[in-house]
Design brief:
By secondary structure, the chain is of the alpha/beta class. The protein contains 6 helices and 11 strands. The strands form 2 sheets. Strands 3-2-1-4-5-11-10 form a 7-stranded mixed β-sheet. Strands 6-7-8-9 form a 4-stranded antiparallel β-sheet, with no helix packed on it. The radius of gyration is 17 Å and the shape is globular.
């Protein structure tokens, strides 16, 4: 059983704490996804509060979602148009919804919320099962930050500001990581810790191959800049063969 780490307290503050993309970056993400969907229905794994799904719906792309957290979906339902987006409660590694799609997508590092290699591989297989021939699976995620970790160290500070402290606790032998967040505001301090399994681009490509998908694109960001050894994240697109 996959544990839901996004309960009511986290969900109610999720957009405030995590929906901090620059407006231009969010706009670029919607434009890329809209282009890949090509006017046909798309499926979002871990749809969350609808940060990306709702702008896509407004752009004319029918969106269906899968989401483990009922509390996150409750936040989606509060937004304009959120009640009209079909969402199935379940985990993205195994949950099926009716129909096939031209695009399945999974953004904002969420592939790493599956904390085993088996779970991540199953996610690719689930995506492939939902794709029509020629359809695409897109993932946005970070590159494991091990180059920033001094030899022998296990912790990395990834944010330090007046309102937020963030520390990753990394185990290089298991590819497991726990991200610890502390938010500070006028109400006091809130702490949130979330386990991850970081995954390399080459490992994702192997998972895709197991699922019968072929790498089509890998960009450094939503502006489709080239992916290089200095890139801190990547957007990867795998395609299901047409025949």
């Amino acid at each position: 059983m996959i544990e839901n780490h996004f309960g009511r307290e986290v969900a109610e503050h999720y957009d405030e704490n995590h929906g901090h993309d620059e407006p231009q970056q969010a706009k670029a993400a919607v434009e890329v996804l809209q282009e890949l969907a090509n006017g046909e229905p798309a499926l979002e794994f871990a749809i969350g509060t609808g940060r990306i799904a709702l702008p896509l719906v407004n752009a004319g792309i029918p969106i269906t979602g899968i989401e483990l957290s009922e509390e996150m979906v409750a936040e989606l339902r509060k937004k304009e148009g959120g009640k009209n987006v079909p969402v199935t409660i379940g985990d993205m590694a195994t949950t099926r919804v009716p129909g096939t799609f031209n695009l399945v997508f999974l953004v904002f590092n969420t592939i790493t919320n599956l904390t085993t290699q088996d779970g991540q591989t199953a996610c690719f297989q689930n995506a492939a099962a939902h794709l029509k021939p020629g359809g695409r699976f897109l993932i946005e995620t970070s590159v494991p930050p091990l180059q920033q970790l001094p030899v022998g160290e296990t912790q990395r500070v990834f944010d330090r500001s007046e309102s937020h402290w963030g520390v990753d606790d990394i185990d290089v032998t298991t590819q497991r990581c726990t991200s610890h967040h502390i938010w500070i505001d006028e109400e006091g301090m809130r702490r949130f810790s979330l386990p991850f399994r970081y995954v390399w681009p080459s490992e994702l490509d192997l998972m895709a191959r197991i699922a019968g998908l072929q790498l089509e694109h890998r960009w450094a960001d939503w502006d489709r800049r080239p992916f290089t050894k200095e890139s801190g994240s990547h957007i990867s697109v795998w395609r299901k063969p047409s025949t």
